[in-house]
Amino acid sequence: MRALQVVTLTGPSDLVVNDVPEPTPGPADVLVEVHRVGVAFPDLLLSRGEYQMKPEPPFSLGVDVAGTVVSAPDGSGFEPGERVAAVGGWGGAQERVAIPAEFTFALPDALSYDEGAALPMNYLTAEFALHERGGLRAGETVLVHGAAGGLGTATIQVAKGMGARVIGVVSSEAKRQTATDAGADEVVLLEGFKDAVKEATGGAGVDLVADIVGGPAFLDSLRCLRRQGRLIVLGFASGLGIPEVKVNRLLLTNTDVRGAAWGEFAMSTPGYMQEQWARLVPMIESGAVRPPVGRLYELEDFGQALVDMDERRALGKLVVRVRD
């Protein structure tokens, strides 16, 4: 079968499509015929050997997949032919993949394979950040950085599904519409966002900041928080460095900075992903969650998709076609 592989840890330009043996599922695995693969930031890091998990080359990329069940263990709840989405550490960018049933989810009929591949990592990460780490409550206001990207649009939609007001921050006018279409109530530009947020909230500030990009905007994000506000650290997509905070600021303002490492928590907590999925399904059924899919790439162009994501040209979630 075809597989998109890392053979040298030299980045996206050196990815290759190879013929590899089909996987043999373990006793707790679902064997999935892959239709679509979502492009994720860990794929970029894996291609460079910079991720916390370091598989030995050659290995296949691919964190998010959507496809159909070929076989499933008894009692798993999955049947051959069923449409599913799934998530793993890597290995999904190939024609078939074996994934633990615990990390596999029934794909609602309302969603396409493209949308299914855009769901797992980003939306489960967003749900973890807002629900588990952020303690978001209906009626609160959330500020989302990187609001036009895959994780940003997911965070907007999950926050809206939880009953929040959402202000998106984007780096250019060209990205404003993507964040608006994802459901943001207001969208402001990164340049001068602190003052724009203060104006939008009548000077009160926001209850929660979801910071996906890091970099020099971090301090102004803290300044956007109201009393007992929470800033959730989700990543450093800007590439402009990892920010630091003087803890006396947190003391004086009664605010929090919290990390949200979904993968480490979810993959080591049995049953947690299924609990998260159960909370997302009503949001999907209500229409609050509908993943915006950006460009669709062929398997051979996975490397270009990673370059586009790395250079922040992505709008919504980038998806790779494995088969129709």
Comma- or semicolon-separated keywords:
324 residues; alpha/beta; Rossmann fold; seven-stranded mixed β-sheet; 11 helices; 16 strands; 30% helix
**Full CATH superfamily name of the largest domain:** Medium-chain alcohol dehydrogenases, catalytic domain
Largest β sheet strand count, sense and barrel closure: 7 strands, mixed
The total beta strand count reads: 16
Structural class of the secondary elements? alpha/beta
Radius of gyration: 19 Å
Listing every helix as H and every strand as E from the N terminus to the C terminus, the arrangement reads: EEEHEEEEEHHEHEHEHEHEHEHHEHE
> So what's the oligomer here?
single chain
The global form is globular
Helix-strand blueprint:
Blueprint: E1 2-6, E2 16-19, E3 29-38, H1 41-48, E4 59-60, E5 64-71, E6 83-87, E7 96-100, E8 104-106, H2 113-117, H3 120-133, E9 141-144, H4 150-161, E10 165-170, H5 176-182, E11 186-189, H6 193-200, E12 206-211, H7 218-223, E13 225-233, H8 247-253, E14 256-259, H9 262-267, H10 272-286, E15 293-298, H11 302-310, E16 317-321
Parallel strand pairs: 9-10, 9-12, 10-11, 12-13, 13-14, 15-16
Antiparallel strand pairs: 1-2, 1-4, 3-5, 3-7, 3-16, 5-6, 6-8
Helix pairs in contact: 3-4, 3-10
